[in-house]
Amino acid sequence: MYYWLIVVSREIDIGMQQQASEIVQVLKSKKLRVTPQRFAVYANLLGRTDHPTVEQILADLNQDAPTSSQATVYAALQALREVDLVREVLLDEGICRYDANISQHHHFRCSCCGAIEDIDWVAFPPLDLSCLRPGLQAERYEVTVKGVCDRCQSHS
Q: Quick check: 39 and 23 in contact, CB under 8 A?
């Protein structure tokens, strides 16, 4: 049994090392200096799908020991955003969330628990943006569907 734990532990370590190496390569490919803060923020975002706020990222990073400040997280996010590795998601007025899924996609927002879930881009037919009034030029769009998620439906 002890041998099995060593093998599993070693496989996890190798997997984590590969993931860390991939993150470093992505940051370098975007000509970003790899700092512990950028690495930690980007790794955190890659490991989650809940579209966290700065405060949630900060709480995650400082869970074991306070190592990051809010200003540091903002600076890391700005650098990652400028090279298109993360994007801002504005689903609620005044609340900025972040997403490492930079492919085109839509969002579902549960009005009960606040959960946010990605929806594949092809789930909806394309919008006809030629219907906009003259003078408006669309750059991009995404759909936010608001409703009740299956978890909240099962609790009611």
A: yes
